[in-house]
Amino acid sequence: MMSRRLVIPVGSTAQTVIKHYKTNPATGIDALVDKLDDTGKPLTYETAARYAGCEFIEVFGSPWCVENAIDGLGICTEESGQESPAQRSTREAREATQAAEAATRAAQEAAVLAASEKLDALLVKLEQKSVLSKAEVNEVQATLAAVVDVKGQVI
Amino acid sequence: MATTGLKAYDQTVVTILSTELNSLANGSFGTLSGVFDNSTLLAIWFDVELVIAAQGSARSAGATVTLFMVPSLDGTNYTDANAEDEIAYVFPLDAATTARRKVRRGFEVPPLSTVKWTLLNSTGQAFAASGNTVKYRTRNLTTA
User: Fold this and answer.
1) CA distance, residue A7 to nearest chain B CA (Å)
2) Do A55 and A67 meet the contact criterion of CB atoms below 8 Å apart?
């Protein structure tokens, strides 16, 4: 069953007060101060875990962290490596772009092949009307095949 | 005749998240920020600057950092601070270790005294042990 745990720095305990940089409105300078809970008292990791709906607190590097490949601090679950909604939309957008590019490439390749088949048909007619010899037709077809091959690689 | 337009920023930049982001694991939320009180200021928009310090290993392709708003509508009970919360901004990042600074603007904030913020690290790597911040400035309209 998935659990939600607050992973805290090595050397901290549930009673350690969390500190943060707070900007002094008068000077605009950040200073490291105690973070406060909703009652105005210094905020401990235990209280922060409760606010965040975490059932447990883990010190970084604990057996649970190692087992679940936790690589840092924060609110973690056994499925911390799962895709977030933001990552999913980024991935879907990337996949849509790649699919559109692939479709464009396929359409271009089909157009090149269609054009080469038309030329083939014209060459046959020219041979039948004795405008070109069989050898000349073969040479043109070989040249056309080489051009199509190069164009296919470029596309 | 009165005209309404943008009001210039009337406050300095304020840090809302800093040490909460130290060594933040990939796939994890940081601890919640302090309270952002908008009940007096009544700002409309919450513009944000994210600074990510250089990370130890390269971020994944499609790396993002997401800032979530965690409000308390009744003044006591905050929403759960998870991926179903309201997204304020998504910051796409490149697949490198390089420190990055990103600014986003225009997120509308409610006129509450009880709003907190949290950041989700989806970069594929833990954040650096220090130097990561989220700062904000709020702005409004004015009628003259």
Assistant:
1) 9
2) no
